[in-house]
């Protein structure tokens, strides 16, 4: 990192955020060989390598960050998630394996278990002496976790739970750690006692003994080859009346007495379920962060290549043109880069919120609900951004981008599943919309009776229309109404108004539409289904606004004038390219005139050209050590290219 | 295929087109195990398997179709490309390996060589006794083939060419067959004789002996692991003053006499180059076909899954909802399905044109140029369609879509490179635009002097604004002007007018814009570069119109009333979802009012719902035997699901 330009260094400081120290430690501690994996390893070798890396990682003490101080942890959730983000610049198999073990498995014991579980297990979890699994998803139920079919039936005669997989569709599927390494699993099952079901609860079920043999009654399968994440041993788990002691139940939110009496601090079954799930939100924040990191790695590779690679001579010239000097190439990469900046600021806010919620002395249910909604939205947007951007980077590198050595293939294949795991994005956006609608509940009280809101998405209980910390800022910037035609398009107040106005309009329209369904004979599903694209649009408009506000707040917090100026331009590009993508909506709803809409495209083009000279500095701002990039087309910059880029930046 | 519904059978007949017999033979001849490959094979095993499959394929006689009758071929180019399309429902490594050997290597010998080469090599090419390579792309020059750096210098002293790689950037890269199997390579090099260069020509250069050892002076590298196509042995080739006889030159378009005198039937060097390249257009048609097939396989898998998989119960109901009954799921898959139908009709026209051009008694240069432009456009559109659609299919199948056994990972990874090989899509669209601009040459004669057109894309010489066979049809349908507001949106004439009007308007605007650059001080590159997004838009609008017209012609040719009705609805969906994607343009240019633009979205939603009951029949129409799908989530349909779908279709 010795070759950082001054601008690159200040941009990096702006993006590094509150846990900058954790990022810097990671940069210094990890060598490329710690993070990167030979892409030619076969599945078994890759799994073995990741297992070994997990041990090394445990040795660094990093995983302690996320655990309570009483059990050898450091209770610094923000540091934990930030370290995870840094790790995500390397092999994502290690990342996911670490996330499953320490994040999901360990997190479930911490958040759903009680003192007895903590004392018994946490030290071995932190040290990776006890590799774990998180057995939630089933073959038949991934998104609709509330209705999974595995059962845990209490037998008061022996004081045990009987964990059972009643049919093929109830087999636990895609479980990380199941196929090779996992010894203990957190198993989600319908808890039955005294002949009555009390909804989904989690239990600790041993699946392998220390010698690696499957425990009696546990059938373990291997998911085999996947699109990516070859180093993660995903497998299936089926239970044939497996008996575990009563204390195997992670009993913070629901317990069964020796005689079989069920008790819970939360009366309502559905609310209890969502409260339990809510405590596991960290996994989703981590996936969002990992997707962001992988995207930035891909952009760094493609942009560093694009300022070195030439093709076709300009008319009347013998010199060939650099790829990044072509408008189409700028268009492929620079708006995506701007979005990555925006998302990093949003992610930093998210991590800070998570940290506050999880380290608060008293649980704050409203803050918790707000966080859940925010996480769902950001996770959906950032993982889709990863899929499309890494694809664009691959294409921008042509044949070289197809070679494994240049990392884009693995980045693409590994992150692909992020759009559908830790919550399917389409379902997550419905969850966001539900939160928004709940806020509007008073306006259309009949919705709940229709069961529509309950159906729209299954995972949020409370009322949510979150406002970011930058809300007052908007008032301060003040401003131009959304229909102004004359104002300069690079007017932050205009961007904020356009984003906010769109959100409000789409949401109100959606509410009206669903309200109409109040008719006694209305087919609730048909009404909901007809509005489903509207539901997704409402959520997306909301998340876009939250992201823009986070970017604005990030610029406000930056004190270096040069960095501020560049960030402001990047923010313009983010805002205007986002508006451009949804231009039809703004035109259809009279928010942009045709002339102004064309001007948006012209402004995006102009911003790409203006940011072109700072392309390298902008990539440096991502804070990825060049040697971590690995890709031969990008890790090294020829001296000539470096000098030319410096000159270009100076001349601009 | 015994379980085809009546509608599925007639749709299949419509899509099968002129070479239906070839398709049917392929369905009957190939068992799944002939086409599909175990996704867990390692690279070497996969390469060995593909090599063995190549021998088997040679044994079937299929490859004969594409070769001249004089040398054991059948001279049926259409049959050859169609068979290739069918093969593309299987492992795409085999497909690409076959395409490189018979299509590119064999095709170059046929089209660039003369009788002596044909007599000496073609039999061994057809039988795969002599595995070949097509060594065009270099590390430094992929898109700009005209300026590659390998040299072939004639030495009149020995009557030999000296083939040389002058520097690292001139190494031949990504060459299929180079790493393991290839023995003879068609090498593209700058031909130098008598101290003068005559541009790029192709020579036959032995690279390995029969024992598999590299020939003296030939350095062979292995591209190693790639994103996909693991069974194709891509490698690098570098030549250190390798001597080949004078007759190694494929001398149809340029020859060197013993004394070193150069001669060619085509005076102009650039025109000669593009003529040579033009004869190789079959490769691009084949890639387009393969991309179309892979996309249809992915859609078949995702749609068959979506009519069996349920998630979340509807409000007030215990029964969970089928994925394909959700509007968002229909939106993900059905417009893509409609586009696949449209592209298949366009591909069928393309293959027919190719067949006519290549089997014509007299070469028709205008037809050849038109074909090249058409191929470039369709190839770009269909390969991007493949990338986005297969991705959508993966996500639509959730975790199951991420498992290798369900084939979507390989379909995605294997086809990924299609957008940048056989011509980078961005470059290809510029080539299409250049053809369109050339047609407008009279309007702005100064363009050529500027060198802009020459720069815009490097591969077409002649004048091209092709019109499809359906052109008169448009007049017959007659009609509604583009600004009509009242007419039903499902009006074919309206669709055609909207597509055509957009093409015309964008192209005229582009021409005006480039014309303005005529000023004496204009920086030609800056002007071109500023218009580059406009250039791509012009090409895209043109290709969209060509595709729609092909669809319309396909419906006209279909005689079954039920199939016609369904196809017409699918065509509506294709046309309206294409308009919806570019809605902002239609709004900005006053072609749609806001109200009408919203109605387009409503019509797309309605069409998805209307086509939902026919989803299975529409997939059957793709003509892929269910057992070829391989994917466990799709190959088998549970009896219950099959019956339910039949009922749904009947009730609709």
TrEMBL record, chains A, B:
Its cofactor is FAD. Its main location: other. It comes from the Bacteria. Transmembrane segments: none annotated. Keywords: FAD, Fatty acid metabolism, Flavoprotein, Lipid metabolism, Oxidoreductase, Peroxisome. GO terms for molecular function: acyl-CoA oxidase activity; FAD binding; fatty acid binding. Its EC number is 1.3.3.6. InterPro entries: ACOX_C_alpha1, Acyl-CoA_Oxase/DH_mid-dom, Acyl-CoA_Oxase/DH_mid-dom_sf, Acyl-CoA_oxidase, Acyl-CoA_oxidase_C, AcylCo_DH-like_C, AcylCoA_DH/ox_N, AcylCoA_DH/ox_N_sf. Residues 496-635 form the Acyl-CoA oxidase C-terminal domain. Residues 23-127 form the Acyl-CoA dehydrogenase/oxidase N-terminal domain. Residues 278-437 form the Acyl-CoA oxidase C-alpha1 domain. Pfam families: ACOX (PF01756), ACOX_C_alpha1 (PF22924), Acyl-CoA_dh_M (PF02770), Acyl-CoA_dh_N (PF02771). Residues 133-242 form the Acyl-CoA oxidase/dehydrogenase middle domain. It is an enzyme of class 1 (oxidoreductase). GO terms for biological process: fatty acid beta-oxidation using acyl-CoA oxidase; lipid homeostasis. Belongs to the acyl-CoA oxidase family. This is acyl-CoA oxidase. It comes from Oryzihumus leptocrescens.
